[in-house]
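Async update (no meeting this week)

Hi team, since we skipped the sync, here's where things stand on the single-chain job. The sequence we agreed to prioritize is pasted below, unchanged from the tracker. I ran it this morning and attached the output directly underneath so nobody has to dig for it. Comments welcome in thread, and please keep replies under the output.
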Amino acid sequence: MKTPVAKPKYTTSFLERGSFWFYGVGMIFYYMIVGTYMNTYLLLQGIDLAKIAVILLLVKCWDAVNDPLFAYIFDRIKFKKEKCLPWLRIAALLMPIASIGFFNMPGGMSEIGKLAWFTVFYVLWDATYTICDVPFFSMTTTMSIDMNERNMLFSVARVFHGGGNLICTTMMTWMIGENCGMDFGKAALITCLVGAVFTIPLFFWGREHYAVVPSQNNEAEEHPFTFREMFSYLRQNKYLTMLYGIQIASGCLCVGGAAGMVGTYYIYGQTSFGIITTWLNMIPGPVIGLLLPFILRKFDRFKLYMACNIFTLV
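Output:
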């Protein structure tokens, strides 16, 4: 007779875990709506894509500074009882404003006015998503101190991300496609409202059990890292440098999301075909996400990450 296996005991409740995962769905809504449909929308606004490319390059250069800058601020600012939740609440309020504003550019503006509108709202969207992204993936460490539970929280969050991706792109593609014909502004409003609904549970049931670390009266604990120390550590850690280098190279190759809508329209004659390709592309993600805790027990994380990036490149 087999010995019954005890169910794992979690320090987090079902509502705490669920609200965290659902927030991830809303978060990916705001990421996908701009990341996937931006180029198509701007092209339909009659803006020179070469000028857009220049602005995007400048914004991404700022983003390279913005991300570590916010990480520095995130580490320095201490709330009384929480670490990540205050930032996530702020982002939940700002992200829909930035996303909806981005897709409601006045049609009668000059090209310079449209470029200014695009720049302002894209920078705002990028900043608000950074405010959301850093605390969200840090929150697993403040929800639990158990590594298995953290892995579970992160893995299931990735599955929910994949589900949110499918829901968002399916909704948006259908609404702006030839079958429905809704304009981008209304479609973005509806999509962002749905995304906002997913973020609401975290306001009520989100909890950080280990946000405040007891003081050890240790000078090293009290000493905040400076930018110089951060980059000095990066130079000394070849594996971390390699990891960031791979992320940069991988990001340079991510053209599918930007070109997907335009490609399906010009190649297949209808944007709705993009729904099929999106579903086919996203199905493996949730499956791998569910299997990830078991995979991590067998393989080294860094080697697995390296192998996946090489496979993607090939």
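Quick observations from my side:
DSSP finds 13 helices and no strands in the chain.
The chain has one domain: 14-211+224-313.
Reply here if anything looks off.
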